[in-house]
Amino acid sequence: MTSRDFAATIAEITAGLSLEGAIQAAQDFTPVSVDQARQIYQIWSTMNAAHPLVCIAHFNCSTLLDQAGDIVSAEIELRRAIAANPDFAPARINLGGILERRGQAGSAVQEWNAGLERMGAITRDAIDYKVTYLKQISRVLSDNHDLPSAEVVLSQCLDLAPDQRDISEQYVAARLAQCIWPPLSGSSRVSRETFLKRLHPLSMCAYTDDPLLQLASADQYVRTLAPITDRTTAFDRRDAGIPPGRKLRIGYVSSDLRHHAVGYLIAEVFDLHDRDAFDIFAYYSGPEAHDPIAQRIRAATNWTNIRGMSDDEAAAKIRDDGIDILIDVNGHTRDARLGIFARRPAPVQVNWLGYPGTMGSSFHHYIVADANVIPPESERFYSEAVLRLPCYQPNDRKRLVSSEIPTRAAMGLPEDAFVFCSFNASHKITRFSFERWLTMLNGAPDSVLWLLDYGEKTNARLRSYAAERGVAAERLIFAPKMANTLHLARYPLADLVIDTAPYGAHTTASDALWMGVPVLTFAGECFAARVCASLVRSAGLPELVCETPDAFVAQGIALATTDRARLAGYRARLIATRDDTTLFDTPLLVRSMEDLYRQMAENHRNGLTPTPKLGGLDVMLDIGVKMDHDAEEIGYAPDYLDRYAQALAHREIVAAAPPIDVFPTETPQPSPARRAA
C-alpha cells in the first residue's frame, strides 16, 4: 500500500465502506504501517458510531495499540467497545488483562465478574467465553495467594469444560498447594486417572516418586504443548557446526533471572564464567524486573528480554546470535519457553537447574546432574543423556543476610523447645511427609514444627490433621513471609530442618546449610527426591542422608531427644567448614560446567550429540496412572520396577503386541535405597 492508497481508503470510509471492508483494509495495511491500520479503525468507528458492530472496530483497534505498546490507548478503545456493546465478551476479557498488567488485579477481576454476570443464553460461544472469564479470574486469585477461591472458580471451569487440560492442571495444583489430600479428587466430571494423565510435570514431581510415570508424563506434556505437526524447521540448527578454536557461545533461557529462588542460586555463575573462552548470553522471559539480582545478571551477560517476543522471534534471535549450546533454565516451570527449544535454534540444547526432572522431549540432548541426583542405575528414567558436576546446584556466596538476628520469642517460638523446621512450599507437603513429621513430634514430646505461613485455611487444615493424630495444634508454628535477608537470618533459630518427599528441599536446603542448620533427608528415586541428599552430602554431612523413610523418622526423633550432642557437632561442622565444601564452591562448579560445555561441543563436532530416549512412553503412562499413588508411596516399593514389567507383560499378552523397549536387556536392579527398604 502507498500513501495514496491510504487516502483512497479514507475516502471509501467516508463514502460508506462496510465493516468487512474496513477490516480487510486494516489487515492489508498492518504489515506495512500499524499506525495507518489503527487510523482506519478509528476513522471508521467515528463515522459509524451507531453501527451495531462498531464494538469490533474498537476491539481490533485496541489490539493494534496493545501490540504497539500503547496500553493506555488500548484500554480506551476497549472501554469504547464495551460501551457500544456491554455483552461483547472479548473486549471485557482483554480489558481485564490490561488492568492486571497495569497492577490493578482487583479491577481486572471485577471486570471479568461483570462479564460473567451479563452472560445470557447458553450457547457454545457463551460457554467458551464464560470459561475464559473463569480461567482469568482463577489465575489472578492464585497469583494473589487466594487458593481456596481459585479452587472454587476452577471447579466451575471443570463443570463447563472437563476436557481442557490446563484447567485440570491448575485445579490439582491449587489443591496440592492447600495440602488437600487426596489432591486428585473433588470433581464428578473428571476421573482420578484423567487428572493424573493431565497433571503438570512440576506437580507430578510433588505428587509421586515414580520415575517412569514422571518421564511418561513429561513426554505427553511436550507432545501436547509442542506437537510435532506444529514445529517449524525454519530455525533448526541441529546440524550447524561448532568451529574449534573460537569462543563457545552459551545461551541461558530463563524467566527467573531475578528476585527468585533460581536467580539467587545462579547469579554468581554469570560473574565467574571465563570470558576468554566463552561468550555468555541471557534470554530473559520473565516479568519486568529491576531488582539487584536481575541487574547483576544483566550486567554480566549479553542480555536480551524475549518476554514480548513470539517463539519464532526469540528462536530467530538465538539463531542469529550463533548460540552453540542453549541452556533451558526453566524446564517445565512457570513462563517456560518450550516452543523456543522445539525450534532447535542451537545445535546442542541442555536441561539444567530450574526443573528437577527429565524434560521428556526430543530436543533436549543433555541433563546436567551429579552422581547423587542421578546415579548410573537411574539414567534409564531420563530422555536426555546425563552429564555430571561435583554438585549440580550452584550457590551464591555473595548472598546477603540481615545483621538483625531475631529471637525465638520474636518469631513466636518457645525458648526451650526443640524446633523441627521446614520452609518448603506447601505443594511439597504430602500426606506421607506430614505423617512422618507428626511421628517425630510424637516421639519428641518437647518439640515443635516450624513451617511457613501457608494461609489461614491451609494452616488450619494442617493443625486439624495433626490434632486428629495426637499432636496438639499449637505445636505447629507458622512463620510469616519475610524479605530474603531477614528470612535467612532467622534460620539458626531452628534446631533441625526436616525434608519433604518426593519433592524435597532445594534452595531452602542450601539456605539452611549456609546458615549452619543441619538438614535431615532421605534419598528417593526421582530427581526432585534426591536433590536434598546431594546438597547435604556436598555440605559434608552424609550421616544425615537416610536410606529409608523409617530411618529418616528414627533419626529425627533421636536427634531431638537422645542425640542432641551429635546434632550440635553437625552444626559446628557446618559453620567451621562451610567455605571449603563442594556445595558452596561455586568456582569449582563453574569450571566443571565449562568443561561439560567443551565436552558437549566436542561430541557435536564428532557427530556424537545424543538422541533423546522416548520409546514406549505412552504405554508407561497408561500403566502408571492406574496405580494408586494416594494409597502408598509406590516409588519406594521394593518391587516397583516389577510392577511395571508385569503390567507391561500382561498388556503384551492380551494385545498380542511386541514388547516395548523401555527396560534394559539386563534384569533391572533396584537402587541402594530400594534394596535397603
Structure description:
With 677 residues, this protein is α/β, with parallel strands linked by helices. The chain has three domains: 3-210, Alpha Horseshoe (Serine Threonine Protein Phosphatase 5, Tetratricopeptide repeat); 230-397 and 587-605, Rossmann fold, CATH 3.40.50.11380; 418-583, Rossmann fold, CATH 3.40.50.2000. The chain contains 28 helices and 13 strands. Helix 14 runs parallel beside helix 15. The longest helix is centred in the N-terminal third of the chain and has 20 residues, at 124-143.
What's the helix and strand layout?
Blueprint: H1 3-14, H2 19-29, H3 34-47, H4 54-67, H5 71-84, H6 89-101, H7 105-117, H8 124-143, H9 147-160, H10 165-177, H11 192-197, H12 201-207, H13 211-225, E1 248-254, H14 261-272, E2 278-284, H15 292-300, E3 302-305, H16 311-320, E4 325-328, H17 338-342, E5 348-351, E6 366-369, E7 385-388, E8 418-422, H18 431-443, E9 447-452, H19 456-468, E10 476-479, H20 484-490, E11 496-498, H21 507-514, E12 519-522, H22 531-538, E13 545-546, H23 549-560, H24 564-577, H25 586-605, H26 617-624, H27 640-655, H28 672-676
Parallel strand pairs: 1-2, 1-4, 2-3, 4-5, 5-6, 6-7, 8-9, 8-11, 9-10, 11-12, 12-13
